[in-house]
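Section 5.1 Outputs to date
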Amino acid sequence: MSRFLLATLLSLATAAVVMGVTALIARRLGKVSVVDIAWGLVFVAIAWVCTLVGPGPRPLLLAVLVTVWGGRLAWHIRRRALGAGEDPRYEKILSKAPPEKRFAFAVRKVFVVQALAAYVISLPLQVAAAGDSRPLGWVAAIGFVVFLVGIGFEAIGDTQLARFKADPANKGKIMDRGLWAWTRHPNYFGDAAVWWGLWLIASEVWPAVLTVFSPIVMTYFLAFATGARLLESEMSKRPGYPEYMQRTSMFFPLPPRRRPAS
């Protein structure tokens, strides 16, 4: 219990520091969307802090995997955001506050919320660091495979979309090829699978299995809250997207349905 308290306090402090620094950078740049780059990195920081509390094969493996996931995500978002303006999602949030109070409003509604979300979602990492140092078993092996599936969906889906957008012939078209023919959000599905894999690796150490709400919360936000649903509220207005929705699974990959007859 003492090691868990140390891990959880350090994790909460780490999330607060990372998001606090990010808020200052966002204020300097005039872009709240810089928080999207920090989202993956805050988990990386928490994961390595946890290895200081509970050294051993499990916390170390989790830290390495989180670094692979969070580093790739931060690099991808930074590359995509170069030269772009504020994200429409954050513009909509900030529009609810008067101009002179926008930064304080963003701190409360974006940076504090994301710091707390990162703290809660990272609970499997914290509990695994506080547990015993038993060897990795077959459940961890399954978790590793699930993690690989998730990171594969994210990386391949993002690459396919980037190539599609880079082709001038695809301007105004809807991406419905490759993984995007099986799910409308392969990157969000991959994100969820990553955290189910990390939870499985952690769950071999009691009571980490009780932190199952962590991947559940992550999946909920990705599929139904701030992720896919929010994006589709805008995408559904584009020509061809409603038809794409009819033939393609929203989140979990499924074989594409036949195109409706014209």
